Amino acid sequence: PILHCHGSADPMVPLAVAQKSQELLAEKGAKEYVLKPYAGVVHTVSMEEIQDVKDFLKRVLPPDDSCKIAVKDPGDMSVKELKAAIRKAGLGQQAVGLMEKQEFVKLLKDHYEKE
Fold first, then answer.
1. Measuring CA to CA, which residue among 102, 69, 80, 99 is closest to residue 110?
2. What letter does residue 36 receive in the DSSP assignment?
3. pTM of this prediction?
4. N or C: which end of the chain has fewer CB within 10 A?
5. Is the dihedral of CA 84, 85, 87, 93 positive or negative?
6. What is the C-alpha to C-alpha distance for residues 63 and 101, in angstroms, rounded to an integer?
7. Bridge partners, 34 (sequence order)
8. Which tens digits make up the pLDDT trace of 21-64?
9. How far is CA 75 from the centre of its chain?
């Protein structure tokens, strides 16, 4: 499968060149070729394009659990790790006034359960 993303306003590589690529690869036997133009996008990347690529990769790549990142259990974290994880999760305001390690653990566990 091929996903070809291309800005319709690309001044460096005109959309017609992308369309020619699609034709040539179809002649060579490409079966699943999607040319997706992005209106008004120049020679750059857009957030819509990034989302489309993400969706495409999820669809065509087999799941591989060996690539998953295991999140450390908050109960096993040091206070320093807990505070960093709380900041990273955007929970800093909710942590104001917490004193005990178990309070930080509960805040983070509750957040993970909501995700």
1. 102
2. E
3. 0.56
4. C
5. negative
6. 36
7. 3
8. 999 999 999 989 999 999 999 999 999 999 999 999 999 998 88
9. 28
